[in-house]
Amino acid sequence: MSPLVHGAAYGVVIVSALLTVIAFGIWFERKFAGRMQSRLGPTIVGPVGLFQPLADVVKLLQKEDIVPKDADRHLFDIAPILAALCSLGAAAVVPFSSSMVAADLDIGVLYVLGIGGLMVIPTFCAGWASNNKFALLGAMRAIAQSVSYGVPLVLSVLVPVILAGSMSVSGIVAWQSTHHWVAVWPIIPGLPAFFLFFLAMLAESNRIPFDIPEAESELVAGVTTEYTGAKFVLFYMAEYVHTLVGSALGAALFFGGWDGPFAPGLHWMVAKTLAIFVVVYWVRWSLLRLRADQLMDLCWKRLTPIGVALVLLAAAWVQYGPEGAR
Amino acid sequence: MGYVTDAARALATTLRNALRPPTTVEFPAVIRPRAERYRASFALPDDEHGEVACIACLACERICPSQVIKMKSGGKRESPVSGKKRAYVDEFVLDLSACIQCELCIQVCNSDAITMTREPEAPSFSREDLVLNLVRLRANAHDKTAAWGRGTVLQEMQEPPKAEKPPVRAPTEAPKPIQAKEPPADAIAEPKQPPAPPPQPATATATVPETETP
């Protein structure tokens, strides 16, 4: 089987799986958010409101496709497609089991970070092309945030890379299944690196408490202010996919991915990913939004130095640790 | 550091909420017990002869602060049921869309002819559906549970209590003289002098309260 066919087949499977998970992830988020606020959440559409995401999608697709009069038409149209591509593309290197990975790149970690960093381009396209001050402000904030948080994100990901001595996501998972999970041992660079990764991932995917690019109370809806219907669905989906892929990476890089007893690897990977995904929701519905300057303060004065220290510790562990120099 | 502890507390709070049953219910399917004096819509109940009790005295129309009640009197005629002569109401319109549920119309009704109901009207798509006419108001008296208040009950409640006889004024005691300050510390050991009898005001009589007849 040529790599192209292999990749395409896995792409179809993984994209469909991701979209299904996201549809029910939205249902779960609304239900969970309801319960956290002592509400019921959706109940009407389908059993326990299970078909609510489908109803939402149908509703959104029916909506009129509005393009602002002075918008840059081509950029405006292409931005949501690019956003969806960037977020879905990152899923390519996520290993769902020891054999189930769309593209087992040698530099998978670099690829994920790169394609995640590309998200700023559709974001800025959307903000610029909308010809709307809220959208533009949202885009500028999003870019400032994504570029800044890229630094702690890279530093946190470097810890498992250094420990495992591999830049392939599958390679890192394979190393963990023969040694120990990165977040478990060595606990000092491992677990803090996961927290760093988690925070940076939240910021990269613009989730609360780092949602200042959207900031409903300040910027209407940020870059998506002028988007309706199917294009808005693409943006919305891109954000969810970004979060989901981020959770999957967290599970793979820090919690051993498919590694686990009794159950098949795919089950372990899905369970770990969903566990991190749930924590993302939990954080989203519990915390308040940071101010823009607090966000930058947190990134550059706290997370980045911590990240540098963790990378140095990881390197020292590899060189002088109990497992000896490699 | 404050943000970290606050964030931990926020996460703990939401987790606690998520683990306990929700406090809301699905309203149309589940209706929580309503307050004892909950009131929503209106009804025109019948009198003991099965006729509408309203005699079109206009008291409720006059007192209504939002002026949502309009009625037309049908004049006095003999009742076909009881044979007694009484007044009738021909038209009675209550616009629920502007009603503020103040219950004043109920309070002024001397014949208990308008009451409120515990069940609200069904939500509607047009304002016209919220205008209650005589037919709908009479139907409400049969179909819906009456609320707590009725005109005569409320009037009796709000009447000032009737005095049995003119109140007798209690005799006033003589005002106490202001106590002298504590003696200085060296004077404590001395036997305490009985306090001097308080100077009676010139108007005070010799009768003491105990001896006075009740």
Radius of gyration of chain A: 20 Å
Q: Largest interface, per-chain counts?
A: A-B, 16 and 14 residues
Q: Give the CA-based shape of chain B.
A: flat
Strand order of the largest sheet of chain B: 2-3-5
State the low-pLDDT regions of chain B, or none: 203-214
Structural category of chain B is: alpha+beta
Order of helices and strands of chain B: HEHEEHEEHH
User: What's the multimeric state?
Assistant: heterodimer
User: From the alpha-carbon coordinates, what is the Rg of chain B to the nearest angstrom?
Assistant: 33 Å
Number of distinct helices of chain B:
5
- Say how many strands of chain B there are: 5
Strand content of chain A: under 5%
Main pleated-sheet profile of chain A: none
Helix content of chain A: 55-70%
- Distance from N terminus to C terminus of chain B (CA atoms, Å) equals 74 Å
Structure explained in plain terms:
- The complex is a heterodimer of chains A (326) and B (214).
- Chain A has one domain.
- Helix content of chain A is 68%, strand content 0%.
- The radius of gyration of chain A is 20 Å and the shape is globular.
- In chain A, helix 2 (52-62) packs across helix 10 (229-254), helix 3 runs parallel beside helix 10 and helix 10 packs across helix 11.
- The model of chain A has no long low-confidence stretch (mean pLDDT 85).
- Chain A has helices spanning 3-36, 52-62, 73-90, 108-117, 120-129, 133-164, 169-178, 187-204, 216-219, 229-254, 265-284, 292-320.
- With 214 residues, chain B is α+β, with helices and mostly antiparallel strands.
- In chain B, 21% of the residues lie in helices and 14% in strands.
- Chain B has five helices and five strands, in the order H-E-H-E-E-H-E-E-H-H.
- In chain B, the strands form two sheets. Chain B has a three-stranded antiparallel beta sheet. In chain B, strands 1-4 form a two-stranded antiparallel sheet.
- In chain B, strand 2 (69-78) and strand 3 form a beta hairpin.
- Chain B starts with a helix and ends in a 56-residue tail after the last helix.
- The chains are: A mainly alpha (326), B alpha+beta (214).
- The interface between A and B is medium-sized, with 16 and 14 residues.
